[in-house]
Amino acid sequence: MTRRLIAEFAAGPARQPTADPAVLGTLRRMGEVLGCLGEGLSNAGIAERLDRAEATVKTHVSRLLGKLELRSRVQAAVLAQELGIQRPHPEAA
User: Fold this and answer.
1) Contact at 8 Å (CB) between 10 and 41?
2) Which residues of 8-30 are buried (b: 16+ CB within 10 A; e: fewer)?
3) Which residues, including other chains, have CB under 8 Å from residue 90's CB and lie 6 or more apart?
4) Nearest to 8 by CA among 87, 81, 83
5) d(Cα 73, Cα 93) in Å, to the nearest integer?
6) Cα–Cα distance between 82 and 50 in angstroms, integer?
7) pTM greater than 0.85
8) Crossing angle of the two packed helices 73-83 and 21-38, in degrees rounded to 10
9) Residue (of 23, 19, 77, 18) closest to 46 by Cα position
10) For 20-71, what is each residue's pLDDT tens digit?
């Protein structure tokens, strides 16, 4: 179930989203963090990549693991790889 939800999220919306913009922003950040975990980045590396404080990244990672019912960031990294979720490099943006 979790993998299907993430795969649908990664594929993008099939229609115009009607959710609260704050909720959509949170989902986007979770996807970015998951992509960074898939690259094997540390919290410090994720913080640098996303221009966030390391404490903020720790909170995002913790919440992500809880919502996806994962026990470790390694499981999150494997899931990101399996789903093909990647965080674009800043140079590519």
Assistant:
1) no
2) ebeeeeeeeeeeeeeeeeeeebb
3) 49
4) 83
5) 25
6) 22
7) no
8) 100
9) 77
10) 676 667 778 888 999 999 999 999 999 999 999 999 999 999 999 998 899 9
